[in-house]
Write a structure and sequence with these properties.
alpha+beta; 3-stranded antiparallel sheet; signal
Amino acid sequence: MVSAKIAVISALCLVGTAFAAPAPIPATEIDYVNILIPGPGLPTPQELGLTNEDLTRPIPHDFPSNGISARDNVLMKRHECRPSHTCNIGDSVACFNYLLSLDQTPCGVGKIQNQMCNVNGCRWIGQAENAETAQSYCRDVAWGGKAVNDNCVRGNQVGGFNYAGGNGHLKVTIAGVWV
């Protein structure tokens, strides 16, 4: 009788295991180099010679001032979190590292939203605010999104907007859907 109960319990455990939800894929196993979609006119990660290691590197804590004093840094003051339009933080980090790697490549936008990076539906979107057009170095767009990645995370989800470094007219939104 006892052995029959053990057999039934063992069988149920095996069936339960077969239908268990798969574990999430670690960011280091996602092929960001091939799934990252750059914005219009921007080079692909392959063209830049980027690797998955480059795209999954943790975001640096230090913001390079580029001549902006910490007191005057609009990046620290203007971010806004949007918990209803979020995406995976690992995917957002890949976009940050991609845009940062573009360094002084211009990231220009108009009043209509312009996707600068998309990974698994996590979009970094630029839009000119209070101007017809706006342009910043792509590295400054990345640093603008850093405040969202630093301050707008719930669990493994992130969403919100901020402005590109040194350009209060270029709004950078990180979202899982078009906003």
